[in-house]
Amino acid sequence: MSDGPLAGKVALVTGAARPRGSGRATALALAKAGADVACLDIARPYASAPGHGTATNDDLDAVVAEITALGRRAVAARADVSQEDQVEAAVAQATEALGTVTLVANVAGGSGPGFGLGPLISLPEAEFRHVLDVNVIGTWLVSRACAARMVAAGVGGRICNVSSQAGKRAFALLGAYCAAKAGVILLTQTMALELGPAGIAVNAVCPGTVDTDLINPNGLFEQLVGGPEGLHAYLEREIPLRRLQSAEEIAATIAWLLSPDAAAITGEAVNASAGQTMV
Ligand SMILES: NC(=O)c1ccc[n+]([C@@H]2O[C@H](COP(=O)([O-])OP(=O)(O)OC[C@H]3O[C@@H](n4cnc5c(N)ncnc54)[C@H](O)[C@@H]3O)[C@@H](O)[C@H]2O)c1
Fold first, then answer.
1. Which atom of ligand 1 sits closest to the CA of residue 214?
2. What residue spans define the domains of the chain?
């Protein structure tokens, strides 16, 4: 058995494929802590959501290879988290390959151009629904599939969802995303209530502004806020620690909430935002 506080545990991470993403960083952090990891991702360009990102099959295979190189077991599970049948098949596949999943990181999600970004009075209905489907329904479907197996096996576990500062305060042009990420927080709290007696803890992480390709492909974020001077002004104005967060920092918070060190914590929505979110 491998070393580390999560040795012998089986984890499942959604959104695990994108090279600079928080999900990939989480999968690696959990593996370094000793867990075997099922890496779930849509892992294909999702043409219906331009600007939302293009994790590929190769990206997913790469993170699985990295985990295997660390001496842990890993499996690639290709699924769209918003599709019930795909989630069921992926969790069944992960369980068959690695054993009962008792640590779940629901990282898949997002918003962007063509995927819910824009004023609420002109946002297409299909875009709003898609944001809810991926961020809220997807988080619930994966949690349901894993938690039901934990309960059936009579084992406890830990689930960590990814919400956002946008789940705690309003942002213009991000209405669908705000509604979805606020939904993730109440989903987290309700599942914590319902699953606590079975020994399953459920928490959420609320990142602020993270330097991943979701918001910052090829330095786009700096361009959007007006170049280097605009970025400096944004950081001065918005973020007490004066910097964006890294995927590794979000991953570390998720890994902590999934670890025995967080044993007393459930139903919380923990900010990991360099001080940008203070609610
Ligand atoms: N980047 C930020 O500033 C920021 C801030 C707050 C919250 N978040 C949240 O953090 C999480 C991770 O975001 P990130 O910044 O690492 O983005 P990212 O785009 O790098 O990663 C998202 C991952 O989810 C996968 N994915 C997307 N839709 C999917 C689906 N339907 N089914 C399965 N997999 C899917 C993508 O392929 C990708 O690997 C998201 O939930 C996002 O909303 C990000």
1. 19
2. 10-215+246-272
| CATH code for the domain defined by 10-215+246-272 | 3.40.50.720
C-beta of 112 in contact with ligand 1 (< 6 A): no
Rounded Cα–Cα distance for residues 164 and 112 (Å): 14
Residue 46 confidence (pLDDT) above 60:
no
Please tell me the distance from the alpha carbon of residue 207 to that of residue 213, in angstroms, as a whole number.
14
Q: What is the mean pLDDT of residues 155-168?
A: 98
Distance from the alpha carbon of residue 108 to the mean position of ligand 1, in angstroms: 5
User: Which amino acid residue places its CA nearest to atom 37 of ligand 1?
Assistant: 55
Q: What is the pTM of this model?
A: 0.97
Known catalytic residues are 177, 181
Distance CA 155, CA 193 (A): 17
Predicted confidence (pLDDT) per residue in 48-88, tens digit: 444 456 688 899 999 999 999 999 999 999 999 999 999 99
